Amino acid sequence: MKAIITAFAQGIKKSGVSPAAISMPSDIPFKPEAIRELGVDFFQTTRGRPIAFGTGLKLGNPALKVMPVVGDLMTLGGNHFVHGGRRNMELLVICVNNFVYKRIAGKPTPSAGAAFSPYSTFEEPFNFPHLGNSCGAVYTARWTALHTEQLADSIAEALHKNGLSMIEILAPGPNYYTDITEITPDILNFYFENSTVKDGEDPRNVGITPDENIIVGKFTSKERPTFIDQYNAQHGKMLGDKFIPHGYVPTAGESGGKHA
Amino acid sequence: MKANPREVLTGVYYIDGDVASGFGALAAGCKFIGGYPITPSTEAAEAFARVAPKAGAVFIQMEDELGSMAAVVGAVWSGVKSMTITSGPGYSLMQENIGFGAMLETPFVLLNIQRGGPSTGVPTKTGQADMMQSRWGSHGDYEVIAISPDSPQEMFDYTVKAFNLAEKYRCPVMIMSDECVGHMTEKVVIPSASEIEIEPRRLYTGPPAEYMPYKPDEDLVPKMAKAGDGFNLYISGSVHNEKGYPVTVDEYKSVYVRRLVDKIRRNKDKIIELKEEATDDAEVIVVSYGISSRVAIKGIEIARERGIKVGNLRLVTVWPFPDEKVTQLAKKTKAFVVPEINYGQIVFEVSRCSHGHANVVLVPHGGAGVHVPDDIADAIEYAAKEDQKIETVVEFKTRLERTVFEGGHKLKE
Fold it and tell me: Whole-angstrom Cα distance, residue A127 to residue A27?
């Protein structure tokens, strides 16, 4: 957790975006008080709903940079992610994946903790970057929690992307798992050591399997009109002068934006 | 403060209740509706979606009602007034984030155009069977305000009022309407902006470093801040202390949740609106809300023609419930008659507050239609004649129920 928050701090600093302009909705498991040190506005929402909550934040005040941090993303919140990608809502989705690699004792999926699967898991996990890219995300990357520098760079870059970006962070959450399995904080190193960086890799090829190294890296970056761009274009076309474009009011410390 | 002229569609209209509510939301300063269309509430969302882009407001069709409710709570924390619109199954899906919104003390409005249930029920016809769900639908202790309009004009007026109450008490406000009022077309007068009073958000204005998001004012309601204003907010759906941090200590929980319910309960005299007529020397008092209160007018008229002294208590505000008022009336009347389009919801509140002083008669209706006024009149007549004290709620057998269940009547195939 500490590693991730450090990367958040570095990424935000590198991006040049004022922390005050960043809102971070999370779901239930992710609520570290240390997050306050980042200087962002933090909302601990309901399970799987940070993307939907973030959609409201963004449309209520388009000047905000909204960075939903999700754990249950692909289970409870899968549909919000799919549609966020389709709309290209301007959100930087951070998926903290605490999936425990199948080689390790416990072997749970993202949606089932070790305690829930005493006889190991047999379900195929999602390939998150592939799913995100297929749904229209403009930026996909995956890092382990120990790729601090690359992770920070990705966050800095994605904060300036126009549309839905997603960064998957492999972070087994040793605080939790050490209580119920034999997993120790060494698992962070295990991930780090058993990963291979392949920037630009086709997301179709980055699924996590038990027998191969985990592929990490910045996979895709593309441009698509955002939801607000399309909203303004369509209503402008239909209503002409009667339409009041959905505004972009830069908040304190923010350098302005394309809707200004 | 007064409404913004850009958002008030001043004029005289011939529109249905749904549309009137959509226009009311705009007039109240609503800047965001996230919703998922569902019969019979869709026209309200359509009306808002049509006018919103010309008034600087946004409508988004979300992926589902879970997302709609979550987006509404998010939009409110970004600083704008927000609402969602739904019915039946959508209302059930929203319960999760209604509780979340209540826990965060988020001011928002939810329009429920009730239809027949349970489940898919009767999508295109009326019902009043979500009344208890509006009070108890999400888990845990919390309080909401629920209003039940009975005409398109009231759909406009009370939508504005719902936003004002939400801002004042920082809680969810439900407009518990129904298909009949939603699809009823009548004259609606939208006044000028200068005639519409708007409750502004209770924003904190002191130094950001000293801001305590959950430190209440004297009326138990805390001041709010919005995202992006440098408050470094930590806002959580977990039980939290005044700083907003989650706490597990028992005393914090009792103090916090206590205030969450007390801010409504202790202010209920200021919140509750009732319409009361001829209750002073009434033998029987009809207690009703929403469309049933309009049908009840005719039932009361028929009963009066039969020589019975009938009083009328219309619950404009259903939650918080007017306990004291009902108890006070129970002491001076013989019986209450409660017509509602369900098999008994608000009638049990009336019974609870009667404390055995007055008999309580339910005139049930299974939904997909409204009461026959004669049934209400007959129930009033029965209640006036009944001299025995009856401990439980009496369920009056309506014409329909007598025909179907007692008359050996075969249901139409």
Answer: 21
Number of other residues whose CB lies within 10 A of the CB of residue A189 = 12
Find out whether B324 and B274 touch, Cβ atoms under 8 Å: no
**pLDDT at res. B184:** 98
DSSP E strand boundaries for B117-230: 122-126, 145-147, 172-178, 185-190
Going along chain B from its start, the domains and CATH numbers come out as 5-195 (3.40.50.970), 276-406 (3.40.50.920)
- Contact residues on chain A for B77, CB-CB shorter than 8 A: 23, 43, 56-57, 60
* C-alpha–C-alpha distance, residues A107 and A119, integer Å: 9
On whether residue A239 sits in a domain, the answer given is no
Task: Give the minimum alpha-carbon distance from A12 to chain B in angstroms, rounded to a whole number.
Answer: 15
Q: Which of A17, A46, A241 to mutate: most B Cβ within 10 Å? A: A46
Around Cβ A207, how many Cβ atoms within 10 Å? 16
Handedness of CA A30, A32, A33, A36 (dihedral sign): negative
Nearest to A25 among B74, B228, B230 (CB): B74
Give B219 to chain A, closest Cα distance, Å: 25
| DSSP bridge partners of B85 | B111
Q: What is the CATH number of the domain that holds A89?
A: 3.40.50.970
Write out residues in chain A with pLDDT < 70, as ranges.
1, 29-30, 72-73, 99-123, 172-187, 210, 248-260
Amino acid type, B165: L
Are B288 and B300 within 8 A, CB to CB?
no
Which regions of chain B are under pLDDT 70?
A: 407-413
- Are B341 and B367 spatial neighbours (Cβ–Cβ below 8 Å)? yes
Supply the ipTM of this predicted assembly. Answer: 0.96
pLDDT tens for residues B225-271? 999 999 999 999 999 999 999 888 877 778 889 999 999 999 999 99
Q: How far apart, in whole angstroms, are the C-alpha atoms of residue B120 and residue B69?
A: 20
Contacts of B82 in chain A (CB under 8 A): 56, 60
Residue B411, pLDDT score: 62
In a domain, A256, yes or no: no
Which among A49, A239, A247 has the least Cβ separation from residue B54?
A: A239
The answer as to whether A252 is a domain residue is: no
Q: Chain B interface, mutation test: which of A18, A55, A228, most B Cβ atoms within 10 Å?
A: A55
**Is the Cβ pair A56, B54 closer than 8 Å?**
no
* Chain B residues in contact with A24 (beta carbon < 8 A): none
Verdict on whether the full-model pTM lies above 0.90:
yes
The widest CA-to-CA distance across chain A, in whole angstroms, is 65
On chain A, the residues whose CB falls within 8 A of the CB of B78 are 23, 56-61, 64
Number of folded domains that form chain A: 1
Q: Which residues pair with B35 in a beta bridge?
A: B61
